Amino acid sequence: MKLYAVMGETMEHTLSPQIHTRILQALDMVPNYCVLEIARKNLPDVIRSAWVLGFSGMNVTIPYKEEIMPYLDEISQEAQAVGAVNTIHFHEGKTIGHNTDYFGFARMLQRAGMDPAGKPAVVYGAGGAAKALVACLRDSGAAEILVVSRNVEKLDALRWLFPSIKTAQPQQMPNHFGGLFVNATPVGMYPNTQSCVISQNQMKQFEMVADIVYNPFETQLVKQARDLGIPAVSGLYMLVEQAVKAQEIYQQINIDAQIGETIYHELCQRFL
Ligand code: NAP
For a pocket test of ligand 1, which of 151, 152, 153, 185 has the largest count of ligand atoms closer than 8 A to its C-beta? Predict the structure, then answer.
């Protein structure tokens, strides 16, 4: 029987067990998926313990997506590009790290009909998720990528990882950039649901707006963009699709798109 988990430091609000359980049920598999709260001092022992316990796959969340990498045997191409792992596949005696946020984001944009190819894109935020977004936008052919953050050290680190990007602090945000705007900060997330990273005036310059925050279902950023008539999407579909991609890796199959769609609609009901 296959065993899966999500591991992080504090796991009170994770939706991973719910989403993975639904995917496994849809695949007619036994949904053995548990939540592991791991103290930082125990991180070096996690992989060995997982082998002993017989895990087949493990999702990784804040704050261990980067710290876990030295303990793995192989890192996939996209996880190397992103510099972070959120999915570990225990396969034929090896641990292989992947980054499925990259794919989840790509599928979210695709479903929303937002094609970044040939267009400029602003990524607001410079944390772990921002790296996956930048890698995905670069690989999707975005014409120019500007990362905006209040954190200068993180901007420097991103420029080192992605030499072709431009960076700016919030007060240097341009007024006529156009293309896609993506929020990759927790601003607007429950319980601070009235917050928004940019003003409606700044928003007017963009053709498309995406928020990777998924709770609330429709963030203030998305509401304000829609009020201006700008197509906008929030992060719930990305959350579902990064989990679907993780199961595609664990099971080594392509999963019918309808499964993600059904789970997404079930979660929408929960959030509405
Ligand atoms: P992270 O590594 O902690 O990075 C957060 C980034 O947001 C940092 O650049 C941080 O700047 C910035 N930030 C935080 N609070 C801010 C504020 N009040 N004003 C301006 N900037 C602020 O987190 P992450 O893993 O990148 O995740 C970011 C968000 O994306 C979270 O809400 C997470 O739940 C969501 N997410 C969604 C999905 C999905 O599937 N939909 C996947 C991954 C992440 P400082 O360094 O200066 O604090």
Answer: 185
pLDDT in tens, 207-260: 999 999 999 999 999 999 999 999 999 999 999 999 999 999 999 999 999 999
The span from the CA of 57 to the CA of 90, in Å, is: 6
Q: Is 119 a catalytic residue?
A: no
125 lines ligand 1 (CB under 6 A): yes
Task: Characterize the bridge pairing of strands 3-8 and 74-75.
Answer: unpaired
Between CA 1 and CA 3 the distance in angstroms is: 7
| Per-residue pLDDT tens digits for 8-29 | 999 988 999 999 999 999 999 9
For residue 90 and ligand 1, the question of a CB distance below 6 A is answered with no
C-beta 263 within 6 A of ligand 1: no
pTM over 0.85: yes
Rounded to 5 degrees, what are φ and ψ at 3? Answer: -125, 135
Rounded to a whole number, what is the distance in angstroms from the first to the last CA of the chain?
35
Amino acid, single-letter form, for residue 249 = I
Query: Strand, coil or helix: what is 8?
Result: strand
CB-based contact 182:133 (threshold 8 Å): yes
Angstrom distance (rounded) from CA 54 to CA 47: 10
What DSSP letter does each residue of 31-90 carry, written as one string? --EEEEE--GGGHHHHHHHHHHHTEEEEEE-TT-TTTTGGG-SEE-HHHHHHT--SEEEE
Q: How far is the CA of 3 from the centre of ligand 1 (A)?
A: 29
Q: Is the CB of 211 under 6 A from ligand 1?
A: no
Of 2, 41, 65, 154, which is the active-site residue? 65
